[in-house]
What we know:
Layout lengths: L9 H7 L5 H20 L20 H9 L6 H14 L2 H13 L3 H14 L2 H13 L3 H17 L4 H14 L3 H15 L1
Amino acid sequence: xxxxxxxxxxxxxxxxxxxxxxxxxxxxxxxxxxxxxxxxxxxxxxxxxxxxxxxxxxxxxxxxxxxxxxxxxxxxxxxxxxxxxxxxxxxxxxxxxxxxxxxxxxxxxxxxxxxxxxxxxxxxxxxxxxxxxxxxxxxxxxxxxxxxxxxxxxxxxxxxxxxxxxxxxxxxxxxxxxxxxxxxxxxxxxxxxx
Length: 194
């Protein structure tokens, strides 16, 4: 356990991701997420992406995202869910690509939902495209609800570009099979128009 004020060795956290012990892998992922969060909290210029721009990278070590990509197929759900969260904290378009792969290959909706939240934190045009694709194809109502909320949050960060989100939500409402999701779309569209 790292004490407040100490900076953990990033290489040690990366090495933990390839451990044969699941709790060590989880410690590695959560440690990297914590470092990214601390970097953001210390005054990053933007703490969140917008529709048109991805959030800046919070950890600049090259091996971090490579190691995280290797953990996509971890056998433990909690490691994969924490990985999605950590990628959202790290931010940047490489993380968006990794999250896109995770959403396409992940069988558990709780992990896909966390990945959608992470895409919403990062933002940028690639993330918006990923979220829209998830909204149109994911079988889980919870994942689609998270996608709608992520798009809404991005629209709130950049009101001038919210027309794109509003159009996407209106189009999706016409084909959405769930009353819950359609009602949420209607509610959020009214908030955007207000």
